Amino acid sequence: TTSRVSSAMITSWGGSGKVPLGLKRKGLRVLVTGGAGFVGSHLVDRLIARGDSVIVVDNFFTGRKENVVHHFGNPRFEMIRHDVVEPLLVEVDQIYHLACPASPVHYKFNPVKTIKTNVVGTLNMLGLAKRIGARFLLTSTSEVYGDPLQHPQVETYWGNVNPIGVRSCYDEGKRVAETLTMDYHRGAGVEVRIARIFNTYGPRMCIDDGRVVSNFVAQALRKEPMTVYGDGKQTRSFQFVSDLVEGLMRLMEGEHVGPFNLGNPGEFTMLELAEVVKETIDPNARIEFRANTEDDPHKRKPDITRAKELLGWEPKVSLRKGLPLMVTDFRQRIFGDHIEETA
Ligand code: NAD
Ligand code: UDP
Ligand code: UDP
Question: Which of 39, 89, 183, 234 is the most exposed place for a label (fewest CB within 10 A)?
Fold first, then answer.
C-alpha cells in the first residue's frame, strides 16, 4: 500500500519529495470525471469503500445524482457540477477520466459536443494532470477498432474506422483522446493509463439509453417486443460492470500504460442475447426486427491476453449471472413500489 501513495502524492504537494507533517494520510485524493454516470458511480463506490477521498465532476448530461446520492454527507465525497470542456482547478493524486456519453443515442444527439468533450475535455484533464503531477487514466473504447477486420481484437490492431460517419464523433473523438494521452505522456512526462472498454452492462444503466442490453431488458419487463436491429447476427461481448471497475483500478495502480482491452470475451449474437433475456425475465417475450443503424460493427470480441498477463485481470461474471442483477435494478426503477404488490 505504501507504493500506491508515493510518487503522485508527493509531487502534488509541490514535488518537495517530502509529505508535510500532519498531511500524511492513508487514502488517496481521486478525481472521477463522469462519476455520476453508470460506470463512474460504481467506481466511486469502490474508491470510497477503500478509504479514498473522491471528487466527482459531472455536467449531468447522462449522469444522475441518484447514482451517487448515497455518498452525500460523507466528508470524503464531493460533487461538482462542471463541464470538462471548461478548465478545472483541483488538487488530486489520480484522475479517472470517464466524462463522455457512451450510448450511440446520446453521443449522436449533439455530435459536435461529443467531439469537444473528447478532445477539449481530455486536453483539459491532461493539462490538469500535468500541473498537479497526478496519474491520469483514460476510458477509451472498443469503438477505436471501428468495424474491425481482425477478430478478436488485439490492442496492436489499428482499427477500421469511418472518419465521416455518424459514429465518428465518438470513435474518432476517442482516438484523438488516446493520441493526446500518449503525447502528454511522451512530451510532458504525465503518468498515463489507457483502457479500451468493451460493451458493459449492469445496475444504474440509463433505462432508455438505446443500448441493446438496456433496451431488451426494459422491453421484456414492460411486455413490449425486443427490438432486434438488422438480422440480429451481429455480435458483441458483454461485460458486467463490477468486472470493469476491478480492471480499471488494477490498471490505475499497476505499472503499465496500455492500452488494455477490458471486456468479457464471451461473444453473443443479438438473437442469442434476446434468448438469454427471455430465459431471465419472461419465456414468452417476443422479438421484432427493425432496420439497422448506419456503420454498425458486425463483430466485436476482445482479446484480453495482455490484461491477463500484465494486470492479472479477467472477468468473473458471465452474462447469465450478471443479467439478473441488472434486471432487479431495472424492475425497481421501472415499476417502483408496484413490485411489492405483485410479488
Ligand atoms: P454514462 O453516459 O453513464 O456516463 C458518462 C458520464 O459523463 C455521465 O455522468 C455524463 O453526465 C458525464 N458527462 C458527459 N459529458 C460531460 C462533460 N462534457 N463534462 C462533464 N461530464 C460529462 O456512460 P458510461 O457507460 O458510464 O461510460 C463511462 C465512460 O466509459 C465513457 O467515457 C465511455 O466512453 C466509456 N465506455 C463505456 C462503455 C460502456 O459499455 N458502458 C464502453 C466503452 C467505453
Ligand atoms: N488546464 C486545466 N487545469 C489545470 C491546468 C490546465 O483545466 O490545472 C487546462 C488548460 O486550461 C489548458 C489545457 O488544460 O487549456 C492544457 O493545459 P497545458 O498546460 O498542457 O497547455 P497550455 O495551457 O499551455 O495550452
Ligand atoms: N441493437 C439491437 N437492438 C436495440 C439496440 C441495439 O439489436 O434495441 C444492436 C445494435 O445494432 C448493435 C448492438 O445491438 O449491433 C449493440 O448496440 P449498442 O448500441 O448496445 O452498442 P454498440 O453498438 O456501441 O456496441
Answer: 89
Can you tell me the mean pLDDT for 120-145? Answer: 98
DSSP code string of 271-333:
HHHHHHHHHHH-TT--EEEEPPPTT--S---B--HHHHHHH-------HHHHHHHHHHHHHHH
Measured from the alpha carbon of residue 79, the closest ligand is 1
Using CB atoms within 10 Å of the CB of residue 138, give its burial: 0 to 12 exposed, 13 to 18 middle, 19+ buried: buried
Rounded distance, CA 201 to CA 199, Å? 7
Which numbered ligand comes closest to the C-alpha of 109? 1
* Cis amide leading into 324 (omega within 30): no
Q: What is the DSSP letter of 255?
A: S
ipTM exceeding the 0.95 mark: yes
Nearest-CA residue for atom 12 of ligand 2:
124
Contact 78, 55 (CB under 8 A): yes
**Ligand 2 pocket residues where CB is under 6 Å:** 87-89, 123-124, 127-128, 130-131
Q: Which residues contact 324 (CB under 8 A, 6 or more apart)?
A: 280
Catalytic residue, chosen from 107, 170, 184, 201, is 170
Give tens-digit pLDDT for 257-276. Answer: 999 999 999 999 999 999 99
CA separation for the pair 278, 269 (Å, rounded): 14
SS3 231: coil
C-alpha to C-alpha distance for 29 and 76, rounded to whole angstroms: 9
**Ligand 3 neighbourhood includes 224 CB (under 6 angstroms):** no
The model's pTM: 0.92
Please give the pLDDT value at position 274: 97
